[in-house]
Amino acid sequence: MALTPAQQSQNVALMFPIRDHNPSGRIPYVTYALMAANIGIFLSMLPISEDQQALNLFYYNYALLPRRVMAGDGLGALLSSQFLHAGYMHLAGNMLFLWIFGDNVEDEMGHMPFLGFYLLAGVLSGLAQVATDPTSYVPMVGASGAIAGVMGSYLLLFPKAKVDIFVFFIIFFRIFPIPAWIMLMLWFGMQFVGGIGTPAGVGGVAYWAHAGGFIAGILLSLPLWLRLGGPRFWRVTDGHPPHPEAQYILPSSLPKVKRK
What is the pTM of this model? Predict the structure, then answer.
């Protein structure tokens, strides 16, 4: 089973993004619908969560099993596994990343093209995991691969967008903004290093699914980036979404007192 991008980011001094500064120009209906579908399917699974036999059968039918795929069976799981999650934190972490990065990518692609992109990135991420561990019978579930594709697209389209990072180390914690490319490249590097350092057949984190989804997201977004102008698009937008930036300044609830 795959951990979420947030859970993996927490392996390094509990560092993970909590929001970006880039509200979309229109309502991201598809992003919200994908979040609702993931949450709804997870809640519908709760009645069988304590029945291990029923849960195993459910995962056999709908989770991605590389050995089944290599045998030409269970191909539908390349789609269905994208909407399954192994626990509350698994779901919450994935939905956080989708909420942060999905709206701006959907805004540039359009609603239905974004949906096709998301699902295709998820399929390609699953195939990347199958290719690197073809004999595994460990079920792979989660939206992480598809969301990694969204993150790859975000990196290509908006590399300098500001993302607020929460860092907690023992008793120190702080939220501060960094350019998206730093956070996203650090995350991708963790997947690549984790994939190389993890023996085949070991369950827990589908590193190559995440790395594969990230690369797929960049490649699938190249036609859009070129259509927008390629490097000229970066020069015009300075690597940010073409919308006013959110500042997140909260108004004070204290009354103002004039000096005498």
Answer: 0.85
Residue found by looking up tokens 């609702």 in the block? 36
DSSP 8-class letter at 21: S
Q: What's the length of the chain?
A: 260
Contact 238, 162 (CB under 8 A): no
The domain limits of the chain are: 5-237
How far is residue 243's CA from residue 181's CA, in Å, rounded to a whole number? 18
Is the CATH number 1.20.1540.10 carried by domain 5-237?
yes
Helix ranges restricted to H, 22-133: 29-45, 52-62, 66-70, 77-80, 88-109, 111-132
pLDDT at 192: 79
Q: What pLDDT, in 10s, does the model give residues 95-150?
A: 999 999 999 999 999 999 999 999 999 999 999 999 998 988 888 999 999 999 99
